[in-house]
Fold this sequence. Notes:
By secondary structure, the protein is of the alpha+beta class. Helices cover 25% and strands 46% of the residues.
Amino acid sequence: xxxxDIKAVLDTAGAALNxxxxxxxxxxxxxxxxxxxxxxQPVKGKADIRTTLELIAAYFNHxxxxxxxxxxxLVESNMALATxxxxxxxxxxxxxxxxxxxxxxxIFKLQKEGPNTGKWLCSIDNSYGTPLPCQPELPW
Length: 140
């Protein structure tokens, strides 16, 4: 496993999100994935994550553009912890611009069986993350 494997999943999900392809985003999750929408508000399972992503897209007037930089990855066996600096840009329904940066955290699992055998999929997505500039200094 390399950092590039995790980056590829994040890039695939990000590109799908940016073009409004919810199916493409959902394909990057495990069946039992958890998406943190806001602190203390987890959404569990692909069906509920799909509904949530559709609501998020509508909230951001279907103009959501997400980019991620400064990827850090820590791997242990079939699990990986990843953090990124995530930038979110959108145009709200009233025409006003929206922009924010957050420190996002993800947990990935290497799939050992089934149709995704050998693929890394996201099992916990905390892309809501920590707002900046309150970013803690990472030791790695």
